[in-house]
Amino acid sequence: MRDEFLKKLRDALEEVDYSDIDETIAYFNEMISDKIEEGYSEEEVINGLGNTEDIANILSKDDTKEENHEPRIPEPPRIPEPKEVEIDDDREMIVQELDLDYVKKIKIENVSYHFEVCGHEGHEAILKYQKDADSYFDVKQKGSKIFIEYESRGFGRFFNKKGDRSLKAMLYLPNSWEEKFSYESASGTLYLHDKDFSELKIETAAGKAEIVNVKANELKGELAAGMMECDDLSVKMLDFEMAAGKCRFNGLRADYIDLEMAAGTCIMDIIGNKNDYYVKVEKIFNTVEYNEHNKNGKYLKAEMCAGTFDYHFHE
Fold this sequence. Notes:
Elements: H1 2-15, H2 21-37, H3 42-49, H4 52-61, E1 83-87, E2 103-111, E3 114-120, E4 126-132, E5 135-142, E6 145-152, E7 168-174, E8 180-185, E9 189-204, E10 208-223, E11 227-242, E12 246-261, E13 265-271, E14 277-283, E15 286-291, E16 298-304, E17 308-314
Parallel strand pairs: 1-2, 2-8, 3-7, 3-9, 8-9, 9-10, 10-11, 11-12, 12-13, 12-16, 13-17, 14-16
Antiparallel strand pairs: 4-5, 4-7, 5-6, 14-15
Helix pairs in contact: 1-2, 1-4
């Protein structure tokens, strides 16, 4: 697509008898590469540049053809920058205006209350922040823009203090949005269900995470204490670390499982045939179980200092 665009631009510049064709082609080629490195697709960049004939006409009007004169190359139409949306206590759940078409990652951090995330069939991204029936924020989307509406039917907003675990936030994402999602919690509770992601990262110090019917290419989890419960989780790679606490995976589908435990309890109900996995479970310097079968190239590795790791396979 890039080669076709540059060829059309060269032909258009020759048509208007432009003087610095090679320099201009090199500029646009480098600019496209820079945008791709920033996270855009080649198609997004090319579409953002517009019509090659229009570019050539703009350049030809400014072409003085004087010796040693560098032509003025206009800036291409602005492409919205990819954004990482951060939601934290200090900003009271208020997100800035954004374009979901270019959001590659949503990050929620410093959470000490209940937070629910799920998918829905519509095209809007909706965020609700609620203490009680008297006060909430409602975030809706029109087209590609998200805006915030605040509604209050009482004095509830003056009692929405940080750290109040009665606070509850609900984020509903369109099913078509399947980018990266990151969650960091101090002591809150995450309910994550009925959603697909390209990458999922969950860290909690002493909170709780409940995950139901979720798919992701990769899940990275860190549990200092607290609890994580997963039902019907399907991932290609599960990379999980826990210092203490309790973790349960019920109905886990994963091609690659890497578990590191300092203490605590981890229970895994894995859907699949054990003989399809290379299994190695080590406790301190003692190998508890070793299984070299890996007919389908799947992998289960667990390193334990203390605690309990119980797992089983079933079809």
